[in-house]
Amino acid sequence: MSNTKYIIGSFADPDDLMHGIEKLQANNISIYDCYTPMPIHGIEAKLGVRPSRLPIAAFCFGALGATLGFSLLYYTMAYDWPMNIGGKPSLPLPNFVPVTFECTILLCALGMVATFFFRNHLFPGRAPRVMDLRATDDRFILAVDARENTDHALVDRLLKEAGAVEVKYNERKYVSYE
Amino acid sequence: MGTHNHHHDYNFSEQYTFAGTAKVVSLVAVVLGVATIAYGLSTGDTTRTFANLLLMGYYFACVCAAGAFFIALQMVTQSGWSVGMLRIPQAMASVLPIAAIVLFVIAAAGLNTHTLYHHWADPELLDTNSPKYDPIIAGKSAFLNVPAFLIRQILFMGSYSIFAFIIAKLSYKEDLEGGLNSYKRSFKLSAIFLVIFGFTTPIWSFDTIMSLEAHWFSTMFGWYNFAAMWVSGIAAIVVILVLLKKAGYMAWVNENHLHDLGKLMFGFSIFWTYVWFAQFMLIWYSNIPEETVYFYKRWEPEYKPWFWLSIVINFLAPLLILVDRDAKRKQNIMLFVAILLLCGHWLDYYIMVMPGTVEADRHFGLIEIGTAIGFAGLFTFLVMNKISKHALVPKHHPFLDESLNHQI
């Protein structure tokens, strides 16, 4: 038993990568993940990636923003110090719409960015970890979990048949930019 | 790069046959409409009939103009996703000249019979010796007088029609000749058209609709009308597209394209609300009598339920139904929302037109429904007839491949 954790297939062409995914799937080899320097149409559907749950976070942050914005308006304008402005009621709902709306958008946007950073382990000062350095440059990376798929020779052969220019046996999951 | 280039064998010469039920129903609707108008005029409901004619004539012209705007916008932004369905807005644009003539005849006849635009189109209002003298209207008469009104109608709708017709024609020519000449020419024409259209549609709506209540004015009115036009235009495209797909045509248009149309419909419904609300809130808050008169009339008991219903249909319904990604990708949901929005913007125009024409003598009955059905039939007949004359896809369009591989 080797110490290989992940087998990395490095492709120079996205078509070959897609071909590689098909080949591995046809042989019942589970794919850990793919890393590409640009978006590839249809790759999520092919890998069976579940839709992002970011919209749920967006909704929650938006609802929070609306509540906070409206509460601030209500407290200052209608509860703490009601004022007669232009003969309007002290709780003029139409006037509260723009501010409430803006607070919704603000918290929704900031919250989505924060969620995205948190989920992807990205924040200032942290060196990003990637499975292959060239995945952000010119290579299309297909990673296979070597512990789950024990027939390494088969994986190697299939990746090369599909057009992988390089197959690596990584003993560590991530390489770092550090 | 052909990552996702599944090999398809589409028949790009496929043509729609306009016959059978679709043709019969649209012609019956036209006959019904004509009968309703004849009934309305003969029973003495002249003002009400003309108000409905103006409403539907304007709606008809707006939806066709939105078709022209759609193709020009796709051309100028060099969009590829929409190429597969471009023949639908092109057909709408080709019908614009007819819609323009219809609206012009209605407006001119309304002026002539004093049933429309009576708030300003009366020489006595300008006569200082007359008891009816109105200094506000007299002050606006340099802009708002009958010859200038008619000339502007001809200039605006005439220029839209010419551009719409030529841009659509160039695409039909491209089918026969191929090459990039048609594309390059229509790119230039589209850019010029968008500039003209953008600057003149607000004035066109000031003239056609806002001047019905000539004492009142709102600088937001033009954009408000543009938003209504654009949403209803996209909704009309969706209805035609889904019905064509259900009839087995246009296999190359899939849920990805529908999703994009859904986003446009969703987004511009919210834009409509934004403009509507901006106009409403500023007037409500500043509370100046000469401005609030517009909403005062629409908050009288005879209009108030319609006023709020319009917000529910045109804002809440698309917001809640289309916010989900999957909803925008389902034909039946999109068809339902598109039809709902078409009805909703009829109601929107109804609220704009009626208080300035029939005033408090508001009705909703045979004449409203009959006229709407008549114009819907006319629109369906003319547009589907136009669609049936050409292949259902511009097969030599330079971005056709992008549209076929579109995925979101």
What does this entry look like structurally?
- The complex is a heterodimer of chains A (178) and B (408).
- By secondary structure, chain A is an alpha+beta fold.
- Chain A has two domains: 6-51 and 129-176, Alpha-Beta Plaits, CATH 3.30.70; 54-119, no CATH class.
- Chain A has five helices and six strands.
- Chain A has helices spanning 14-26, 43-47, 54-80, 93-119, 152-162; strands at residues 6-11, 33-35, 129-130, 140-145, 166-170, 175-176.
- Chain A has a four-stranded antiparallel sheet.
- The radius of gyration of chain A is 25 Å and the shape is elongated.
- The two termini of chain A are 30 Å apart.
- With 408 residues, chain B is mainly α.
- Chain B has one domain (27-398).
- Helix content of chain B is 71%, strand content 0%.
- Chain B has 14 helices and no strands.
- Chain B starts with 19 loop residues before the first helix and ends with a helix.
- Chains A and B meet through helix 1 and helix 4 of A and helix 8 of B.
What key attributes describe this structure?
heterodimer; A: 178 residues; alpha+beta; Alpha-Beta Plaits; four-stranded antiparallel beta sheet; two-stranded antiparallel sheet; 5 helices; 47% helix; 13% strand; elongated; B: 408 residues; mainly alpha; globular; transmembrane helix (chain B); transmembrane (chain B); membrane (chain B); Quinol:cytochrome C oxidoreductase (chain B)
